[in-house]
Specification:
Chain B: One of its GO terms (biological process) is protein processing. Chain B: This is Hydrogenase maturation protease. Chain B: GO terms for molecular function: aspartic-type endopeptidase activity; enzyme activator activity. Chain B: Belongs to the peptidase A31 family. The complex is a heterodimer of chains A (441) and B (179). Chain A has helices at residues 49-53, 61-66, 73-88, 94-125, 130-136, 138-159, 179-204, 247-250, 275-282, 288-296, 309-330, 379-382, 384-397, 403-415; strands spanning 2-4, 10-14, 25-31, 34-41, 168-169, 172-173, 216-221, 233-236, 241-243, 251-254, 263-266, 271-272, 346-354, 357-365, 371-377, 429-435. With 441 residues, chain A is an alpha+beta fold. The longest helix of chain A is centred in the N-terminal third of the chain and has 32 residues, at 94-125. Residues 1-6, 8-20 and 423-428 of chain A have low confidence and may be disordered. With 179 residues, chain B is of the alpha/beta class. The radius of gyration of chain B is 15 Å and the shape is globular. The two termini of chain B are 22 Å apart. In chain B, helix 1 (26-38) packs across helix 5. The chains are: A alpha+beta (441), B alpha/beta (179). The interface between A and B is medium-sized, with 37 and 28 residues.
Chain lengths: 441, 179
């Protein structure tokens, strides 16, 4: 909707941004064909999870923080368990780590499949929503539903529930799935491998706007595999690398007036977490088949075009299916579901790679295991500044488009992030205001 | 699935909602009550994610969905919405575009209409809704708790009608545990 302002400018108002999780607001102001202001307004009241956690036992964050998000609860559980285990000096078994990785594969599969096909693909195929897309591409949508169901089933088996899993605890799991239970999922997962590799080729054929950003890519890294449930260090595309424990010293949260969610800067500057960063910082850790598929899809070993995040996400989808099958292949019954735990006073950090990027938790607990302080930093919060940077670049690059097309292009730029705004917000109200010098009061 | 998949002419009861999220728990609570009384004759499932509907009711001739709804009615009000293949389309835009309809902006109306396009929508779909007061973490509100008896009776009446429509020789017992 376009409104004429008294000063002669224009406001384009998209009352709600479709196909994102949650609600927020976006204001873009253009003067003399120059973008002069971009704000991502997050106006949902704070949810106080960090406050709720104070005074609770060190064993409770995996269950409490999993309720923050219905799409990425495993990310919260993994970061919180790692933080608590680090503080308390708890060493889990390789099998527990393997099962955590399998659970994380389930989350990536369901989240990526939903976003790639149901929320993001309509942008590239020219549909308002997946409903319209399904009329012309029923096979793609059926495949998407199949893939998502495979992820949900994996989450349900390993996590105890498809949404807000309940089987995770500090020290491991309450119950390990059996070989026979896991084998029952194998056909759908093996089909998922093939479907998702075919999907890489499908999305590679989309038409991508030319746009590149140069902000610092930050992600976890692990010496042995592509980062999901944990990493041994944080790496940045500018060559900086440091242990997970040092994240709070390198990433600074700060408040901006137009958002209820804290912004963040890395070493003082704008940075990006998410599939593009993960991929670009860890291309060598992808499987050979994923690497080959990515290169065949036209990606380099790094990707700087936010619109091509759909290809990267699909490569990661294929990787998650591959990993799930690999883990099931080597799983044997009889492993202890958890190791003993006991509290120890201290402070520590845990981090994992949520579908949308690095999430990290910091806790301080006393000798009785009571939480004294908690800090939870999800990826969409960290990416607010880079979302604004993308919006600024996109609005400037396509400033001559009519208001409808410019607004749509800006919405696409936001959806590139698969933002999980509900971790901090609701509704996205997109406004573009155009003025000229002559029209200023 | 595609339209060529053999269809099982039976009836499925689906409780939709998240048990931790206040009144969103009412769907699973209703079907738990019905399962205890009629589980031998029905497929009874619970799901938390609306997108699961598109597949879970595929192949069934009739589906009854129990869910919490927000329509502006007083909390606890029980409503019935018919959304089967022969019924008019639901207004999906508000559900699919607002982000309020379910995880990642995909709600029940979106699931119904997507199933209609993909050919998985049962001939009979009845959504038995209970007007919610709150979806905050915690227990159900008293008004919604008090409405469960009425909702169960409504679900049973709809199931009775649906079972008469579906060939009884093909009904089977298949009770899944709550998610």
């Amino acid at each position: 909707m376009t409104h004429q302002l008294k000063d002669g400018g224009q406001v384009l108002n998209v009352g709600m941004l479709a196909r994102v999780e949650g609600e927020g607001g976006m204001h873009i102001e253009i003067k003399d064909r120059q973008v002069v202001d971009v704000k991502l307004n997050i106006f949902e009241p704070p949810r106080f999870y960090e406050g709720f956690l104070r005074g609770r036992k060190y064993t409770e964050p995996p269950d409490i923080t999993a309720r923050i998000c219905g799409i990425c609860p495993v990310a919260y559980q993994s970061a919180s368990t790692e933080a608590m285990e680090t503080i308390c000096g708890i060493t889990t078994t390789p099998e527990i780590q393997l099962m955590r990785r399998l659970l994380y594969c389930g989350e990536w599969i369901e989240s990526h499949a939903l976003h790639i096909f149901m929320l993001h693909a309509p942008d590239f195929l020219g549909y308002e929503s997946v409903l319209e897309m399904a009329k012309d591409h029923p096979d793609v949508v059926n495949m998407a539903l199949r893939l998502k169901k495979a992820g949900n089933d994996l989450m349900e088996l390993v996590g105890g529930r498809a949404i807000h899993p309940v089987n995770v605890k500090v020290g491991g799991f309450y119950r390990m799935p059996t070989v026979s239970e896991l084998e029952a999922l194998r056909p759908a997962l093996e089909q998922g491998v093939e479907d998702s590799f075919a999907a890489v080729q499908l999305v590679a054929g989309f038409d991508f706007p030319e746009m590149e950003q140069d902000y610092t890519y930050v992600s976890l890294r692990h010496p042995d595999w592509y980062p999901l449930e944990r990493g041994t260090e944080v790496v940045a595309s500018d060559g900086v690398r440091f242990p997970v424990a040092e994240i709070p010293q390198r990433i600074e949260e700060f408040h901006v007036q137009h958002s209820h969610a804290l912004h963040a800067r890395f070493d003082g500057g704008t940075y990006f977490v998410g599939p593009l960063a993960r991929y670009s910082n860890n291309f060598d850790q992808l499987s050979p088949r994923c690497q080959e598929a990515a290169l065949k899809a036209g990606l380099g070993e790094t990707c700087r075009n936010p619109f091509k995040s759909i290809i990267v996400r699909t490569v990661e989808l294929a990787y998650a299916f591959e990993e799930a099958v690999r883990i099931i292949d080597q799983w044997r019954d009889g492993h202890a579901p958890s190791v003993p735990t006991a509290p120890r006073a201290g402070e520590g950090v845990g981090a994992s790679e949520a579908p949308r990027g690095t999430i990290w938790h910091r806790y301080r607990i006393d000798a009785d295991g009571v939480i004294q302080d908690a800090q939870i930093v999800p990826p969409t919060s960290q990416n607010q500044a880079s979302i604004e940077a993308d919006l600024r670049l996109a609005a400037q690059q396509w400033v001559d488009l009519d208001d409808h097309m410019l607004t749509h292009r800006c919405e696409e730029a936001i959806r590139n992030y698969d933002p999980c705004i509900s971790c901090a917000t609701h509704f996205l109200d997109l406004r573009v205001k155009r003025t000229t010098s002559a029209e200023q009061p | 699935m595609t339209a060529t998949t053999p269809r099982r002419p039976d009836v499925i009861l689906i409780g939709l909602g998240q048990p931790d999220r206040g009144d969103d728990a009412v769907g699973p609570a209703i079907v738990a009550r019905v399962r205890a009384r009629h589980g031998d004759h029905l497929t009874v499932v619970t799901r938390e994610d609306p997108t699961a509907l598109v597949q879970v009711w595929d192949g069934h001739r009739a589906a009854v969905v129990a869910d919490a709804v927000v329509s502006g009615a007083p909390p606890g009000a029980v409503s019935v919405t018919r959304a089967g293949a022969a019924d008019p389309p639901l207004p999906t835009h508000a559900f699919t575009a607002s982000g309020r309809g379910g995880s990642h902006a995909f709600g029940v109306a979106g699931a119904v209409e997507l199933a209609r396009v993909l050919g998985t929508l049962p001939q009979v779909v009845v959504i038995v809704g209970v007007e919610a007061a709150s979806f905050a973490h915690g227990p159900m509100s008293p008004q919604v708790e008090d409405a469960i008896d009425d909702a169960v009776a409504t679900v049973e009446a709809e199931l009775t009608a649906a079972l008469r429509l579906a060939p009884t020789t093909d009904t089977h017992a298949e009770v899944e545990p709550c998610a």
